[in-house]
Design brief:
6-stranded mixed β-sheet, binds fe (iii) ion, binds zinc ion, alpha/beta, Metallo-beta-lactamase, Chain A, 263 residues
Amino acid sequence: MVASGDVMTSLMIEQFICRQDNFAVILHDPLSGETASIDAPDGDRIAAHLDLGVWRLTHLLITHHHPDHVAGVPALSQAYSPKVIGPADEADKISDLTGTVSDGDTFEFAGRTVHTISTPGHTAGHVCFYIPDEQLLFAGDTLFALGCGRLFEGSPQDMFTSLNRLAELPDETRVYCGHEYTQSNAKFAVTVDPDNPALADRIKDIAGLREKGLPTLPTTIGFEKRTNPFMRTGNPAIRKQLGMQNASDLEVFTELRRRKDSF
Ligand code: ZN
Ligand code: FE
């Protein structure tokens, strides 16, 4: 007798751009047929993609309440009646939720345990979804490749703490994000971390991918720790570039976010 966990195959992951620069990310488990969408930027586009694979949406995982992440929730709920799981702290702002999660809560998707990580900053109730079995993180608008989300509802301290929590995940963790912002983030990153060879290499790779119309994601936690200035507030070269050698990490983060906002 084989336990079902022993015959687990990898999840299929498909991402495509919706709207302007939002990513739709779809997970499909060929074994169980369970299928999840991370956020719902465009219900029609996601439904068309699902129907192409003859996939039935069983789960909709919502990171935060912004319209570009929840616009498709009503249509997808109506069409597929999935479980719709979103942040408890934003439950009043998201329609059709069937379940809510807070920091540390777990639930099952396709035989995997999904962990909820509360990451306030971009919005007050933002959550990320982490699947350790697959070394996968869905970061929504908290962490981007070479950047982080704007602070619409949270303080610099909130976002700094949130990013530090994500930085504690294993370096190999693959990270899917809510937007394709990498190229514009890279332009800023190089202004504050100009002598980082890993960043310079990455910028070349990004340009090559974008020229071919390919996504620059997923990234990994380790890759971000080597190249994303918002995760490198302790780095001496960045501190020197900012003239903040003796500042706290939070002060460096706050200055980086301030500069990026007006970049
Ligand atoms: Zn957002
Ligand atoms: Fe967004």
